[in-house]
Structure formats: C-alpha cells, structure tokens
Design goal:
- The complex is a heterodimer of chains A (554) and B (333).
- Chain A is built from 24 helices and no strands.
- Chain A is globular and about 80 Å long.
- Chain A has 554 residues and is an all-alpha fold.
- The longest helix of chain A is centred in the first third of the chain and has 40 residues, at 57-96.
- In chain A, helix 16 (336-369) runs antiparallel to helix 17 and helix 16 (336-369) packs antiparallel against helix 21 (468-497).
- Chain B has 333 residues and is α+β, with helices and mostly antiparallel strands.
- Helix content of chain B is 25%, strand content 32%.
- In chain B, strand 15 and strand 16 (305-310) form a beta hairpin.
- In chain B, helix 3 crosses helix 4 (136-148) and helix 4 runs parallel beside helix 5 (166-183).
- The relative contact order of chain B is 0.12.
- Classes of the chains: A mainly alpha (554), B alpha+beta (333).
C-alpha cells in the first residue's frame, strides 16, 4: 500500500538535499579528508600517467615488459599451487585428525609468517650454494654434491610459497574449525566416506575462505622486492626500482606502478567474484568440539610428516641456516652501529604503529559519527593501501612530496631561509607511507573488536547526555583496548619486516634492520645478513604467537 | 509534551518504510504503551524519538521544541530523554555506582543522587559491584536507575522485559512501574505483549507495518477496535464472513468487515430468543477441558469451524450457539 506520490516526495532530490544539509557534520568532512589523505599516493600515480611515459618506456615495453608480465604470471600461478598444497592440506589434517604433536604443530605452522620472504630467500641460497649447507653435508658423507640451482624463477616461487602459505593455512583452518562441524556430522550420518566428504563437501564450502587467504598471499608475492632481486628474477617491483634508481626515470616507474595496480585490482575483483557466487558460511560459529579421527600408527606418522614438512621448510631450515651464519659472523656484525640500527628500527616501527593505529581509530569512529550513510562505505576505501605494493606507494608519495618540497624551498628562500627538503627524505614521508600501506592491518582487528561492543552501549551514553568524543574515551576505548593493542603489535611487526617501501623513502642517514640485512646480502655478505635477520624474526615471533590466539578466536 | 507529526523513516531509500506517516502526541505524566509485532517499527520509532536515528520526513517535538525535522536535528545527548534498552546496555567496565553516576557527573550533589536512586530501586548496598555480578532483574533495575538519575522529561522503555521468563516478567513489571509511578515521569513503553501494556498503561498505541493503527485507552481498544488486527490483540475473535452471516441469519452491511469475540458467543442460549438475537446449531468436533471451563471446536452447517468457551461440562453432540448485535465489532473497509 505504498503511495507512489509521497515516496517521490520523501526521496526527491530536494528532500534529499534538505536532509543532507541537516545531516552533514564535521565528522563527515573529517572522514572524507582522511580517506583522501590515504588515497593520495594512488591518485598521484593516476595523475602522473597524463604527463606521459619516459624516454625508455618504448624500449621497456618491447624488451622488458613481456618478461615482467610472464615472470609475475609464473609466480602467481606456481605460488598459488604450492601455497594451496601446503596450506589447505595442513589445515585439513590438523582439524580432522589426531596425530603426534598435533597441538604444537597447529600453532607452530603460523611461524613462517615471522620471517620476511627475502630472508627466507637468503637462507635457501645459502643452503643450496657451493660450499653451502647441503654441500658440506654431502662432503662429510663422501658423496658427490648434486647442485640444485635455486636462484631462479622456480626457486623464487618455492621460497615465496613456503614463507607465505600460513595465510591460507590460517583462514582455511578457521573455516574447518568453526563452520564445518555440523556439516561433517551430517555427511557422516549419510554414510559418506572421508575422501568424498573432503572433495565434495568441505573443499567447495571452504573456497571463499581459502581464496581470501590466497589473495593475501598473491598481494605479498607481487609486493616482494628483496627475494626477486636476490634471485635475479625480473618482476614489476624490481622493474620499478630499476627505472627509479638506475634509469632515473620516475615517469617509467609510474607507468609500471599503474600497470601493477591494475593487476592487483583484477585480483581483488576475482576474490569478490568468488565470494559473491557463494556465501555459505553462516554467521553462527559452531561451538561444539570437533571430533578428530584417530588413525592407526603408520598413518599417524605419515600425517605428522605431511604437516611437519611445511614447518621444516618454512621455518626450521631457514632459521637453522641463519643461526649457523650468525654464529660465524656475529662478532664482526655486532657493534655499536648495529645496536643503533636496532634501536632506530624499533623506534620507527613503534612510532609508525602508533600513528597508523591512531588513524585507523579516527577513521572507524569519525565515519561512525557521521550521520551520512555513504560515508561509512567510503571509509573502507582508505584501507585499500594494503593491496598496493610498497614500492608503488613509495613512488606515489615520492613524486608529490618532491614537488611540495620544491615549492616550500622556494617560499622559504624568499624569506632568506635555506630549508632543504622538509618532507622528502625525512621520517615524515616514511611514516606517511607506512600508515598508507598498513592502515588495514590496524583497521581490521580494531573494527572486529569494536563490532563486539553492542551499539546500545555508546547509544545509552549519548542518551545520558554525553557527547561522541567523551563517550569514546570513557566507554568505547576501555572496551576495545585489547583490539587496539593487538593492532599496534601487528603494524609493528609489519613495519619491522618491510623492505621495498623503506628502501625508497628512508632518510639517507637512517637504517632499519631490514635494510641492513638487504644491504649485506646485496654486497655479497649474505652471512653477515643473518644477525639482523634473526633479530627481526625473534621480534616478530612472540607477537605472531599472540596473533594466532587472536585468529583462533575469530 | 511529545508531539510527533507525519514521521517517516526508510532504511532502503523509499523501497519500504520502517515507519510511515506516524502522528500522535503524549501528555505530560502519561504512561503510554506501544504495541507491535517485531518489524512493526516500534524500535525505529523509539530510536527516532531518542535521536539515535534521523527521520526522512516529519517532525518530533519535545515540550514544544522541535528536536527533529527536515532541517533541525538535536543530538541525543541534548534531548533529556531517559532510555532503557532491551539488553540494558550497562557499561560493563564501570561499577553500578559509576554507571548511575555517568549521566549526572556535572550535578553538585551527584553522589547523594546516586545513592537516592540505588535506594529507589532497592539496590542500596550493591553500588560497588559490576554489572556481570548482578542477576538479570537487578541489571534491569540498575538500567532504570541510570535512566532516571538525570530526571528526564520522558522515559522510554524498549521491550524491557522481553529477556525474562514469564514468572519473573510479571513480578518485575510491577516492581518497575511502582518505581516509575513514584517519579511521576512521562513514560513511553514498548512491548509486544498485550498483557504488559494492559496492566500498566493509561493509553496504548498500536503499530502495524510502520503505521499507527489505533491509539486509545485500553478499555476503548477492547470495545471499539479500529481493525480486526487490533481486535485480535485483545482476545480471540472470529470474523463474521458471508457463510457465518447466512448460518446465523444476520445480514450485515456489505461495505464493512465484522467480527465477534469468541467469549461473546453464547453456548445453548435460552430458546425464547430473548437471550440472543442470532442463533444457529453446530456440531461439536472436539472438547478440550481447560480446568473450570471447556473449549469446544464447532462446525456449522455451512462448513465453517470456530471455537467457543463454556462453563457447562455436559455438552451434547449438537448444540445451539448465538450472539447479540451489540457485541458485533464493525470495521471500515
């Protein structure tokens, strides 16, 4: 019994404008400003495209671009296969079977995330090198050394997969543990066997969760610079570095960045499309304990080996290699400078973690306080930086800040002040870039804890006469502080591990542990890279265990 | 003191309306209940009045001052409304004392006021506890004390008893309203339970599909319901359709819809016709003994089935039933 006439009246442009005027508040404007601030690097890349490609662009298109595309495609395909193999099999086995050390393996499998993939790459190069660990072992046994060359595309795909598979493992396991139990029981009651249950029921159902994890992996694969550079594989990221540093052609770097962004958005669309087609997961999580099968003795140990293998390859072997190297070189590496760099690294990571979490908080709450509904959706746009490779963000920040600095220098020089570069080449640009890249890392855990606080809680504060800001400090913040704390830790780890963005934007006189490790490796001193690498790994390890607890709850 | 004029709210840009053209007012000191099924728009109405949602059309005035319209919006914190949420919404990290103190922290004698409120709701020595240490009923009373502490001009209770079981519900309802009566505040009370509304409200507003169907004193709603839906809220009713009209030989105005309450249908009325104007015979299909009365499922000659209540336990297989024209409810349309 809708009255068409009055509907048109209520939702006519005139009425909408009237309400828009009534509802727009400072929070709406602030939210828009923050989102714009975080989208700026990408916007600048888009704008720079109009100024045309550089001189070498046609050369690159002809000789290098096919290789970049082919290599990236190769990495995407082979990493997908390997990551699915490692991640899904281990997730399924730990959630369906009982076998020796299952409880330990269940969380240990997440540890490869503590090692940046470029460091895994260094370690494996050492393991397979002439005079490397395998070579030494073979010689001890008086056997001939069969050299496996790992410093190529295939090796790179292996290294990236073995260090990134936990993303898929974590999301697949979360699905198997939370959602799958009653379906499993139903399948069992219908007399369907284990194998058919897995392939016909669980795998298709888990697809959205697995694809979500896989897309995260592929974003990291496309983001990687350190490993590809070390293994001599030309990818988009190494191409961006080359055109920026060697060719000194920012225009070319911009064009490559834009192409890479297009590929990433294609990936995101692929994920959205996958999830849109099938949204099986019910919002109710299943609290009943899964009943694990107890296989017989030989099978038990076979399952153990299958689950142990990715942990061995992704964590134990590389860390053992690094410890061996560190034992040989620590005395030369460990000096005052190293301590200084470590302190700088921690300082930068903590500061940028706090800055990033601050922005995530104000983005979440400002958009909530905005009475305009579309603002809530726009807030998510600000979080997209996580999908954009660090090198691209760095280029997107470098170009406008250089221009801004030039303008500032001009202005200051009118007053007779020689200001030098104010933003570029200082920590400001670096913190800004980290915030853009890792905003999502802070946003997601805070948002999920904030969602657990029922709206009626802040609402009743407001009805009791207390405004938005005071409600936030007195009611909401105390209730979400665990989420905020874990957000700080997560961003902290990511900044500690970050390489490509840091390499481009870091101030000349400042180093981080990641940069130091990279520099040692680039200078043919890969053994010396072990000490800073281990420090990064151990710093990241403790919080990764903490993150695991968080993910289990989710 | 509360005036609402042609209030509308849609959550999907006009495709459907949570609330459509709602108009009513409330006098100071009244206790008004809002009855509606889930999805009838009662929570949306409450949230609009409290300032937690913004209207798409229409206006809300409190004490003669417009607080929401197409170009005015007064923030919830400036409206001086007390709101008790369905889930109580106590601040879990604050003690009971601090929960009640929260809304009156600017008051001079705030601590005395908190203690006064604790005494009022009978939780005098519970101030140091945290919400999770209290029973559901106690939490409910804390929520009430917190809402009443700033002396609101209007107190809104949003389904305050729906989380409680039937026994506790009745007891708590009486307790809560005894407390409220002492404060003489104007009350808007949302419920889906007719019993709740009848036992405490001066006036009842009935919402259906986002529209006000009727607003009236409780006894009027029983005698003069506007629609069949309202009639059925206050007791079982039978629609008097064509077949039933034929069976009872009572032709009625075709332009209107008619109904009769089951309890107004008399079983075995006196045969002289003085007792009932319209009578017919019916077969007894089923007897259900409900303590001191008996429920009968009857079948008329026309095939219609209906249920009636009687005190008489010796019922034959075929009986006479009848009703009077004064008991017929007539609805327009």
């Amino acid at each position: 019994m809708k009255q068409a006439g009055s509907n048109n009246e209520t939702f006519s442009l005139k009425s909408r404008l009237k309400r828009f005027k009534r509802d727009i508040n400072k929070w709406s404007v602030f939210t828009l400003a923050i989102v714009l601030f975080f989208a700026l690097p990408i916007i600048f890349i888009g704008v720079e495209l109009f100024s045309g490609p550089g001189e070498t662009w046609s050369h690159i298109v002809k000789y290098l671009l096919p290789e970049y595309i082919w290599n990236s495609l190769y990495l995407v395909i082979f990493c997908s296969i390997l990551v699915l193999l490692f991640g899904v099999s281990s997730a399924w086995l730990v959630s369906r079977f009982d076998f020796p050390f299952r409880r330990h393996l269940e969380w240990l499998l997440i540890l490869p995330l503590a090692i940046p993939s470029y460091i895994v790459a260094y370690a494996y190069a050492g393991i397979f090198d002439y005079g490397g660990s395998i070579d030494l072992i073979f010689r001890q046994l008086n056997l001939d050394f069969i050299r496996i060359d790992i410093m190529n595309k295939a090796g790179l795909a292996f290294v990236l997969s073995i260090s990134l598979f936990p993303y898929v493992y974590v999301s697949a396991r979360a699905f198997f543990l939370n959602q799958a139990n009653n379906l499993l029981e139903a399948s069992k009651m219908l007399g369907v066997g284990e194998r058919k249950t897995f392939f016909k029921l669980m795998l298709p159902l888990a697809r959205p969760a697995i694809v979500a994890g896989l897309v995260l992996v592929l974003m990291e694969v496309l983001n990687d610079y350190g490993a590809a550079k070390y293994y001599g594989v030309n990818t988009f990221t190494t191409g961006i570095f080359r055109s920026w540093f060697s060719l000194e052609e920012p225009e070319t770097a911009v064009y490559l960045s834009a192409l890479l962004v297009v590929i990433i958005f294609a990936l995101i669309l692929f994920e959205k499309w996958q999830v849109r087609k099938i949204k099986f997961t019910s919002s109710k999580s299943n609290s009943t304990q899964i009943l694990r099968k107890k296989p017989n003795r030989p099978l038990k140990w076979l399952i153990f080996s299958v689950v142990f293998l990715p942990l061995l390859l992704g964590f134990i072997l590389p860390v053992a290699q690094l410890i061996y190297w560190a034992a040989l070189t620590a005395s030369t590496v460990f000096d005052m400078e190293f301590i200084l760099i470590s302190l700088q690294s921690f300082g930068i990571a903590i500061t940028s973690a706090v800055i990033t979490v601050f922005f995530a908080l104000i983005l979440i709450y400002f958009s909530k306080w905005s009475a305009l509904r579309f603002i809530n959706n726009i807030a998510r746009v600000g979080v997209l930086g996580y999908a954009i490779p660090g090198a691209v963000i760095a280029i997107g920040i470098m170009i406008p800040t250089l221009a801004l600095d030039k303008w500032l220098i001009d202005i200051f020089s009118k007053f007779g002040i020689d200001s030098g570069l104010i933003i570029n080449g200082t920590l400001i640009a670096l913190f800004y870039a980290y915030a853009v890249r890792f905003l999502a890392v802070a946003y997601n855990p805070i948002e999920s804890t904030a969602l657990k606080v029922d709206n009626s809680i802040p609402d009743s504060s407001k009805v009791l006469g207390v405004g938005n800001l005071k409600t936030f400090f007195k009611i909401e913040f105390p209730l979400i502080k665990t989420g905020v704390f874990s957000a700080v830790i997560l961003v902290f780890i990511d900044v500690m591990k970050e390489l490509p963005l840091t390499l481009i934007l870091k101030p000349y006189h400042i180093d981080t542990l990641a940069v130091k490790a990279y520099e040692y490796a680039s200078d043919e001193m890969v053994m010396e890279a072990a000490t800073p690498s281990l420090l990064i790994i151990f710093t990241a390890m403790i919080p990764v265990m903490f993150l695991n607890k968080l993910l289990i709850k989710k | 003191m509360l005036t609402i004029e042609s209030l509308s709210k849609s959550f999907d840009k006009g495709k459907s309306y949570a609330l459509k053209d709602v108009t009513f007012d409330l006098k100071a000191g009244d206790v008004c209940a809002i009855i509606g099924e889930s999805g009838s728009g009662k929570t949306t109405l409450v949230r609009l009045i409290a300032g937690l949602e913004r209207p798409d059309e229409g206006s809300i005035s409190l004490d003669g001052e417009v607080v929401a319209s197409m170009n005015i919006f007064v923030q919830p914190e400036k409206r001086k409304i007390g709101l008790v949420f369905q889930e109580y919404a106590l601040f879990p990290h604050l003690t009971i004392f601090d929960n009640i103190l929260y809304g009156i922290s600017k008051l001079k004698n705030k601590k005395e006021r908190v203690q006064e409120m604790l005494d009022l709701v009978g939780l005098s020595d519970m101030g140091k506890r945290y919400p999770h240490q209290l029973s559901g009923g106690q939490q409910q009373r804390v929520a009430l004390a917190r809402a009443l502490a700033p002396q609101p001009t209007l107190l809104i209770l949003d389904e305050p008893f729906s989380n409680l079981d039937a026994m506790l519900r009745k007891q708590l309802r009486n307790e809560v309203f005894d407390i409220i009566k002492k404060t003489k505040v104007t009350v808007l009370f949302v419920t889906h339970d007719t019993q709740d509304a009848l036992s405490v409200a001066d006036e009842i507003l009935i919402l259906q599909n986002g529209k006000v169907v009727q607003k009236d004193a409780a006894e009027n709603l029983y005698v003069k319901p506007n629609t069949l839906y309202v009639a059925s809220l206050f007791g079982n009713t039978v629609q008097i359709n064509k077949n039933i009209q034929t069976a009872f030989h009572c032709p009625l105005n075709e332009k209107c819809c008619h109904a009769i309450r089951n309890e107004k249908i008399k079983v075995n009325p006196a045969e002289d016709g003085n007792d009932c104007e319209y009578i017919t015979t019916a077969k007894v299909l089923k007897k259900i003994v409900l303590g001191d009365s008996v429920q009968l499922l009857l079948k008329l000659d026309s095939g219609e089935q209906l249920t009636v209540l009687t005190q008489d336990k010796n019922i034959a297989d075929t009986i006479t039933i009848g009703f009077n024209s004064k008991d017929i409810l007539e609805f327009k349309g």
